[in-house]
Amino acid sequence: MRIVFCGTPSFAVPTLKHLLAQPDIQIVGVITQPDRPRGRGQSVSFSAVKGAALAAKLAVHQPEKIRDPETETLLRNLAPDGVVIIAYGQIIPAKLLPIPKLGWINLHASLLPKYRGAAPINWAIVNGETRTGVTTMRIDAGMDTGDMLVQREIEIGAKETAPELAARLSEIGAPLMAETLRGLAAGTIVPRAQNHTEASYAPMLKKEDGRIDWKRPATEIYNRMRGFAPWPGAYTTFRGQSCHVWGEPASKGEGAGSPRGRGEAAPGTLYAEKNELFVCCGDTTVLSLSAVKLEGRKPVKAGDFANGARLKSSERFGDS
User: Which of 12, 17, 285, 286 has fewest C-beta within 10 Å?
Assistant: First the structure.
């Protein structure tokens, strides 16, 4: 099979490498996003997919806009049997969809129709899901609305973060894509329409998503810490200064961190016990902090932060 690979971030790389190792699949071209300024220094660098493609000596194409006429000409000249597209980052115009006879085959990091959109892994964790998976689908003109092809389901670890889950899903998705392509070519896969009434959405993350509402229960806040790692993270304010925090729900038993006897404390109230730092949350729950990072400083252990800050009685996160 002649395949064009279309993708951008590291999540797409395992599939590209897996397809390259298949004797019955030929990658005839790679389309990825243009080189962009990245990181704190804003130095121009290329995508993870471009790096993998160059290492494999593949032809790389980086249109500023995939709807440009040059891309249509390129695809018609390459005459692929299928286009594999994973987290490319642009909407594919309808005029390009019919070019490959097998279609544009997407690997989406959720069990569709749940969590359509840009950030399915993050929002599944944030919403407390215990299971997720990957779906191969044939894209259409909608946002993740095309017919489903093959799915694989996995459990989400109780402490798993978004980057950890993404790494697992990307490895699971790689052989699934090869299986999908072969099944489509052989006519053994029957596409299944999505039930649109069961759809949910996973919008692109915004910085504001990471702001902690201490009125939420500790478990919800913890899920947001896991789901919004590494960006936007989970942040609040302390004495008028922004800070990121990490932690997990405290035990409901006796001893340090127990919510017992602290149910009346306002959400966000800090208290230290035995060189540990705790925050009161909604529903009389407590979060045990492991680290705190004040803006412009390095992360420190929560106990060291508490000792250095010399907390006052009833002092709260989130106060100006």
Answer: 17
Domains of the chain, first to last: 2-198 (3.40.50.170), 207-309 (3.10.25.10)
**Alpha carbon distance 213, 308 (integer Å):** 24
Question: What would the two tokens of residue 298 be?
Answer: 């390095």
Predicted confidence at residue 320, as pLDDT, reads: 57
- 261-267: long-range contacts, CB 8 A cutoff, minimum separation 24: 262/286, 265/314, 266/314, 266/316, 267/214, 267/215, 267/316, 267/318
What pTM, to 2 d.p., does this model score?
A: 0.94
The arithmetic mean of pLDDT across residues 301-308, rounded, is 96
The model's confidence at residue 251, banded by pLDDT at 50, 70 and 90, is confident
Q: Is 255 exposed, middle or buried (0-12, 13-18, 19+ CB in 10 A)?
A: exposed
Tell whether the model's pLDDT for residue 318 goes beyond 50: yes
